[in-house]
Amino acid sequence: SLITGDIHFYSIKLHNAKISVLTRSNGYCNASLSRRKKTPAAATPEIPVNRFIFENVAVQIRDSVKMKYYGWNMRDLKCNLETSDSLIKFKVNGLVHVIGLVFNAEKGGFFTEKDAELKLKAALNTASKTLTVAYSPVRLEKQPMMIKARFDLGRDPFMHLEFFSRSLLPAVAFPCLPRSSADKLALYKLSKPVTMYARIDGSLKAGSKPAVDAYFKSGNNTLTVGQRSYEQLSLLGWFTNHVDSTHINDDSNSKIVMPVFNGTIYSIPIQAQLTINNLITPDFFMTASMTYDKKRQGELNTERFRFTDGKIDIRFMFHGPLVNYVDTVNKKL
Questions:
Q1: For 6-47, what is each residue's pLDDT tens digit?
Q2: I want to staple 178 with a disulfide (CB 3.0 to 4.6 A). Which of 107, 266, 312, 330 is the partner?
């Protein structure tokens, strides 16, 4: 009751709002309303809230000291809370437009300008200063995936993120990676969804570069690189940006490995294994075989080849600079 001070707000709704938190390079933060010491006051009763509703609420957090930026627009989001001692459990459901999550300005952000439908189960431990997200379903640009996360927000801030999807378009998957890596991989175009798992680990301190591991596989796909296409493609591979743990996690410390790369090129079957080291100046290693049997596979007649009789059996190895790679300086293949 109002007389006894026992007040309970079951829900709070924000509509058409904008929330901005700015930390300047001198350490000033507009979220700190006052730095002056206050005279201790009598304890005030807690006013519990079970539910928050956000409609068209934009949030931007910019930290010039740590060089971080987080921005999103909660278009239609509901958050149910359950509090017990130092643990706050919450369920988040609804639509969000992610402007970007930048943990390192040099490497670029994650999820830049993407729409997401969330069904998250999370918990905030105020004693240990940890935020965890249990495996929860997310639809990113209408593509289904699962997400798991842990953020340690204490003196040594750290993040751990996991993403998994059985059917995800690469054009949607790449923004899960740091933008500098995503820009390079985006020009390798796959026409159909892939199965993907990605793991990102790293410090949240200024200038840090997270370790990224991504695993992928697909069948009966088409890969286009520049003017060349591989069709009926089955592939299995992984990407990492921390080959050498004693070096910085970046593109020069990256590797792409594909132990399975089977398809056709110019209608000729090819079976290959690929390795690409260093995405700054890519070093390409490939072992492959190409076979064709007219009796078994029929006559071959394309713009480049005409094969009317007999068999082809070619086995080769290539090691050298990769052509048609992404030039990040001039931003072209």
A1: 566 678 899 999 988 888 877 778 766 544 455 555 544 455
A2: 107
